[in-house]
Amino acid sequence: MSGYDLVRFFDGSTGWIWAAPQSQIYPMLRRMEQAGLIAGDEEARGPRLTRTVYSVTEKGHAELASWLGVAHDAAPPRDPFMVQALNFDMIPAAEAVAVLDAFIAEQDKAAAEAEAHRDRLLRKDTALLKERLSRRDPEEHDRIARLKAHVFDGIAAVARAKAEWAREGQRLLES
Amino acid sequence: MSGYDLVRFFDGSTGWIWAAPQSQIYPMLRRMEQAGLIAGDEEARGPRLTRTVYSVTEKGHAELASWLGVAHDAAPPRDPFMVQALNFDMIPAAEAVAVLDAFIAEQDKAAAEAEAHRDRLLRKDTALLKERLSRRDPEEHDRIARLKAHVFDGIAAVARAKAEWAREGQRLLES
DNA sequence: AGGGTCATGTAACGCGTTACATGATTAC
DNA sequence: GTAATCATGTAACGCGTTACATGACCCT
User: Fold this and answer.
1) SS3 letters for chain A?
2) Average predicted confidence (pLDDT) for chain A
3) Which protein residue lies nearest to nucleotide C26, measured between its Cα and the C1' atom?
4) B85 CB near a chain A CB, below 8 Å?
5) Residue A13: what pLDDT?
6) Of all nucleotides in the shown strands, which has a C1' nearest the CA of B45?
């Protein structure tokens, strides 16, 4: 992909799992190229405009595989919403209920989107999955699609659990 | 609290919701004091050693209450573990299962800790809750304790859901 | 001619992490 | 006396966010 492709990529469905602003992409691509993890290939797009398409090198692939294969420490938690919820007793109940309303809407939306994406993956109907499958034995295709779909199933399940938790919280606030 | 108190505070049970390294505490305290949100009070602790105990000013309290009362946009997601899970098809299944084993242990531990903390809150048995309740009408005590306990109930429920999701993932990997 | 998309950058500023650094006081 | 705890800082470096900035190409 080119830097521009990545900018759009992180604004799209991948944005639910990992976000990156445009200003980080280009410097990071150069740093990764210097580290030998990716290699850039300049393409002409008209007489003056060029775009640089990067691909993962063997070294980059090896580093990725070794990172994928071992468990990493969880990042320190930093959850502003939980700080809010822990202090709902400091504000009027009606305000807390409204904050939870917004939270519930957000979680329900996230769950629906994750479920929709899960279904697209099971239908093998996303560009990235097709690209991935094209390099794999057809016998593995179903298993790979189910594995990836399962990730979005988990995201949806967590969002549903959070929404349900928030609804219980509203009941507590109103009692 | 003093800076030192806060360092220990963020290493303790609050560390599940918000973490902050020692190096951030002191600069941030000074910035918040400059902003008028907190006020420091120097105490002598021996002939030479002093500690500065900060308390929240009226302005700081007002800012907190107004922040607590409105919904905020969720932070952009950035979940390295999900990136790992999404690419389990790139590594041997046995490695992926081992990564999930570590994840399950982590989530189970987090859930157990959250449940234990929930129970302490219901028993009104934490220093912070006692401090909070001492400034409130005794009639409200049960409601406040239940509200705070509910937050940790939610943390536990999410951790349990994630662990269950990971176990399903292991079944998928082994099939 | 104009707007939309393609394509790539820079600058400022604060947050977060790891590591280094120092000295006082208390308890045994 | 000496080890643990109390107490407070600094430095280096990269990540993340918002905002600013520029120009080429394509379609109507």
Assistant:
1) CEHHHHHHHHHCHHHHCECCCHHHHHHHHHHHHHCCCEEEEEEECCCCCEEEEEEECHHHHHHHHHHHCCCCCCCCCECHHHHHHHCHHHCCHHHHHHHHHHHHHHHHHHHHHHHHHHHHHHCCCCHHHHHHHHCCCHHHHHHHHHHHHHHHHHHHHHHHHHHHHHHHHHHHHHC
2) 94
3) B46
4) yes
5) 72
6) C25
Rounded to the nearest 5°, which phi and psi values hold at A73? Answer: -60, 140
- DSSP letter, residue B2: B
How far is B60 from B39, CA to CA, in rounded Å?
Answer: 9
Interface test with A, best of B23, B142, B151, B168 (most A CBs within 10 A): B151
Quick check: A15 pLDDT over 80? Answer: no
CB B8 within 8 A of CB B19: no
Interatomic separation, CA of residue A84 and C1' of nucleotide C15, rounded (Å): 20
What pLDDT is attached to residue A14? Answer: 73
Find the closest chain B residue to A146 by CA distance: B172
* Amino acid code (one letter) for A8: R
Check pLDDT > 90 for residue A75.
Answer: no
The answer to whether the CB of B90 falls within 8 A of the CB of A117 is no
- pLDDT tens per residue across span A144-170: 999 999 999 999 999 999 999 999 999
Distance CA(A128)–CA(A144), nearest Å, equals 12
* Per-run averaged pLDDT (10 residues), chain B, 175 residues: 94 83 94 94 93 95 95 90 96 98 96 96 94 96 98 97 98 95
